[in-house]
Every structure is written in C-alpha cells, then in structure tokens.
Design goal:
The protein is an alpha/beta fold and 140 residues long. Helices cover 44% and strands 25% of the residues. Strands 3-2-1-4-5 form a five-stranded mixed β-sheet, sandwiched between helices. A hairpin with a 6-residue loop joins β2 and β3. It is globular, with a radius of gyration of 14 Å. It starts with a strand and ends in a 6-residue tail after the last helix. 36% of the residues are buried.
Amino acid sequence: MRVLAVDPGSRRVGLAVSDESASIAFPFRTVNIKLGQDPLGQIVEAAREVGAGELVVGLPRRLDGAKGPEAKAAQELARRLGLATKLKVALADERLSSAQADRSLLDAGVKRAGRRQVTDQVAAVLILQNYLAKRPNDNR
C-alpha cells in the first residue's frame, strides 16, 4: 500500500509517495498555490494517481511544541483530505523538515532557483520517511 505525504505550505505543497511496501519514500510533485487557491483537489487527485491507501500530513509545530496558525491549517487540511478521500490521514511532526531539506539540497550543490521547487518535495520525503520508520511492522 502506497502512502502519500503532504508538506503543506501557503505557497507550495510538497508531495512524496512511498513504494508499494511502504518502506521507502520518493519525491513526487510540488503543487504551486496561487493566492486564494485551495490545493485540496490537486492533492486528492495526486492520491488517486499514485493509488495511495493512506495519507500523512506534516504538522508544523513550533520549536517549543506549540501549535500556531500553520499547524491549525494543516489539521484542517488533514480533516478535509480524510473526508474527500475516505482514507486514513495521519499527522506527523514536521519541525525543521523544510530547513533540513533546504540544507541537504544546498550541500548537494543545488542552486537557489532549483531548490525552491524541490525543497517542498524533499521535506515531504523526510516527513514520510520518518513516519514510515515509526509505523509498526504489522501495518505494512
């Protein structure tokens, strides 16, 4: 069963997908969001496209663990995705995933313009890989 990860943002949403055995995460797509646009339909379509059986949405907590407006927006997106897809939707702590993704790309020599589009996908990969690693083996 494939798992689709969502790294929500106000301008871009990064997506990553697992392999069939739900053990390895791969970058999938970046959804660019125009002002006032709702990315829900594009995420639902991506879930159908890859045959996802489960979704995981990154929960952007603050460093002290508190939930700000971004976390509340991610929780609402997760709720709406569950209603739209009828799939299990989990939330996963994603503190510093975008910063870690950007650092990895910078270390790999990817120029700033190239990093912008793939940082969100790499962040989604990190969210998904961490989520998959913490899942009990009997869920695979």
